[in-house]
Amino acid sequence: MELAYSIAVVIPTYNRKNLLQLLLDQLGRQETGPFSLEIVVIVDGSTDGTLDLLCERYPTVHVVVGSGNWWFTKSVNEGIRYVRHHLTSSHILIMNDDSYVDPDYLRKLVAAHQRGGEGGILGSLSVTYEQPARITFGGTRQTIRWSMQTINYLEPFEPYEPGRYSGLHPTECLNGRGTLVPVPVFDRIGLLDERRFPQYGSDDDLALTAKAAGVPVLISWDAVVYDRVSLTAAGTAYLKPPFAIFIKSFFNLYSINSIHKTIHFYRKHGLPVLWPLSVGLFVVATFRAYLWKYRRLNTAQ
Q: How many domains does the chain have?
């Protein structure tokens, strides 16, 4: 079998040794296909024995050690830099350390990428690991530039029914979990924007930047990544955090609700004159989600 894809899986991690081990074992049990696999784990300040685990149980995994203050985006970028300098991989797959994938995941992802055009970026359907399974991200039909609101294909947290969702779909946003990128795309548009988006937002920024440069951006509903949504940022509306934590999340540079991140994102991709309005709408929508939209949603495992 011709190996058309040499994939480097880039996985940032911080103090999630047990979950990382599960993901590495899942990647090791993937069904065969027209691809080879290398794994690069970026350990940014972990103190839970992650480095010992990788050394003892996964000697073929490439390890990059961070300063402890890299956060998600710089960790991903350092993983990409490692791949470009030390490996010969044709594609990079960005994964979260707490994700779960079925044995046919990579085979389906590569098949979808081949159908969609080998020069584009491909994302994966995101589904909750917690039961009952719900869809967390299935791509966006459109981004309304004046308000920076997105129109989703699928309603967030609608029940996931295996076999019901299929096919390739253009998207203007990505969520970073299971994103396959040809290495030449980074030569064309640069790496993720770690200055503006150190923790959240760099995945959506990657999608919009690539699209503006003429790079196709698609999402596959056949390739599924299961997310542990209960482990996401503490201020996230659907986790229903205490109100004080929710408020503080707007002023935390590394929060999903970060005003700093949102201002940078809307100034970069929205309409120049209207970005303050867009930020205001974001705050209103986030409060609405917290106070009403997700109040009855059970995200516990």
A: 2
